[in-house]
Every structure is written in C-alpha cells, then in structure tokens.
C-alpha cells in the first residue's frame, strides 16, 4: 500500500519539487495526496497543478473565526488521512489543535542549524543574514518534528555547509537550499519506508 504524503507550502516550492522528483525517480511507494497552501498561486501551487496533485487553499482570513479555520483544516486532513505531513516553506503556524491531533506526523524543514536561528522572525533571507552577522563558521538545514512552537520540535537530522569568506546571504541561501533538496526527500523516504521510524 502506498504511503500518503501531504505537503504544506507557501512559497516557490523548490523543496516540494525536489521531493516529488526524488519520489518519482526512485519509484517509492509514496504518493503525494495533497498540497495545502495559504498563498493562492504560489509556485508550489503551480507545481501541484502541473502534476495533478489536489490543492487545498486554507486561509485564516476566509473563516469567520479561528475555530472554524481549525475545523476546516482538520476536516481536510481527516479526509486525506496522511501518513506524513511535510511543511516545505509553509509560513503560517500550524494550529496547536492539529499538532495534537497528529503526533509525530508533521515535519518541517528549516534553513539553519536549529536551535540556532529559529523562531518566528527567522525565515527566508533573514536567516542567512543573521548567520553571517553572527560570524558563524558553519550553517546548514534541519528537518524536525513540529510542536506547538516555531522551529522547536525534536530534531530528526541536519546537513551542514561551511561558511565561505566571500559568502553573501544570497550565496549561503543557495548552498543551504541545495542541501535541503537532498535532506528533505531522504528523511521523508526514511520515515515512510523504514518500519523502525513509523512503529510497524
Ligand atoms: C526553505 O528554505 C525552507 O527551509 C524554509 O522555507 C524555504 C522554502 O523554499 N522553511 P522553497 O519554497 O522550497 O523554495
């Protein structure tokens, strides 16, 4: 039986694309059953449409109150029955109710070596600017389970890259992104195909 993957994304979707490409190339028994996005027409949405992956737009502003928003997200996920959810550049916080409903089923990728440079204000180029300002010698990316705080849950794995003397935030971002494109698919495949990781 194929494992069911749901991806959440708000941005260009390069991690989403890398994940889909790796899964397709290796013919893994994993199928992406949905993309959830808070940003209609973002790059990730275009990728999903091209591949025939159902898109679910979930925007807080379209619901009268927070609990209606959470209920809508919850019922989408109930229907999709994911074995794993991946936040691949998803900028909104996943509601605590959802985190509690799906323990150890939601992972995130973050472009720094957590716990350094994580939290609400560390996203996109800001992360790499902060890493260079702090004169770090090494950076990288982290895949972790999510909990009720931004960039905080248990770390699954990290990939590292040295900081080069002529690095700019942009050059570092590109190098870390290439690491992300390898690390994220590797962890997804591990979690969904290795019985040790999902308790079967
Ligand atoms: C990545 O750097 C990821 O680590 C972070 O958001 C960015 C998304 O990039 N959470 P992309 O949309 O996958 O290109």
Question: Could you characterize the architecture of this molecule?
Answer:
The chain is of the alpha/beta class and 200 residues long. The chain is 40% helix and 21% strand. It has seven helices and seven strands; from the N terminus they run βαβαβαβαβαββαα. Strands 3-2-1-4-5-6-7 form a seven-stranded mixed beta sheet, with helices on one face. The two termini are 13 Å apart. The mean pLDDT is 96. It binds 5-O-phosphono-beta-D-ribofuranosylamine. The site of 5-O-phosphono-beta-D-ribofuranosylamine (GRF) has 14 residues, from helix 1, strand 5 and helix 6.
What descriptors fit this protein?
globular; 40% helix; binds 5-O-phosphono-beta-D-ribofuranosylamine; alpha/beta; 200 residues; seven-stranded mixed beta sheet; 7 strands
Anisotropy-based shape: globular
Q: Tell me which oligomeric state these chains represent.
A: single chain
Order of helices and strands: EHEHEHEHEHEEHH
What is bound: which ligands? Answer: 5-O-phosphono-beta-D-ribofuranosylamine
- Judged by helices, strands and strand pairing, the structural class is alpha/beta
Strands ordered across the widest β-sheet: 3-2-1-4-5-6-7
Whole-Å distance between the termini? Answer: 13 Å
The largest sheet is:
7 strands, mixed
DSSP strand count: 7
Radius of gyration: 17 Å
Helical segment count = 7
**Residue share in β-strands:** 15-25%
Helix content: 40-55%
Spans of at least 5 consecutive residues whose pLDDT stays below 50 are: none
Q: Provide the residue-averaged pLDDT.
A: 96
């Amino acid at each position: 039986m194929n494992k069911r993957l749901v991806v959440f994304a708000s941005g260009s979707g390069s991690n989403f694309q890398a994940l889909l490409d790796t899964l397709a190339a290796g013919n893994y028994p994993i199928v992406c059953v949905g993309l959830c996005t808070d940003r209609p027409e973002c790059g990730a949405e275009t990728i999903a449409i091209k591949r025939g992956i159902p898109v679910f737009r979930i925007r807080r502003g379209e619901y009268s109150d927070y609990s209606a928003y959470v209920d809508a997200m919850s019922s989408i996920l109930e229907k999709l029955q994911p074995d794993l959810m991946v936040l691949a550049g998803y900028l909104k916080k996943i509601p605590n109710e959802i985190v509690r409903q799906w323990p150890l089923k939601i992972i995130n990728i973050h472009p720094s070596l957590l716990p350094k440079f994580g939290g609400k204000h560390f996203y996109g180029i800001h992360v790499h600017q902060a890493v260079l300002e702090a004169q770090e010698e090494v950076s990288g990316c982290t895949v972790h389970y999510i909990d009720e705080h931004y960039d905080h849950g248990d770390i699954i794995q990290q990939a590292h890259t040295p900081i080069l003397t002529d690095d700019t935030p942009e050059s570092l971002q590109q190098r870390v992104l290439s690491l992300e494109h390898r690390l994220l698919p590797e962890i997804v495949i591990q979690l969904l195909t290795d019985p040790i990781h999902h308790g079967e």
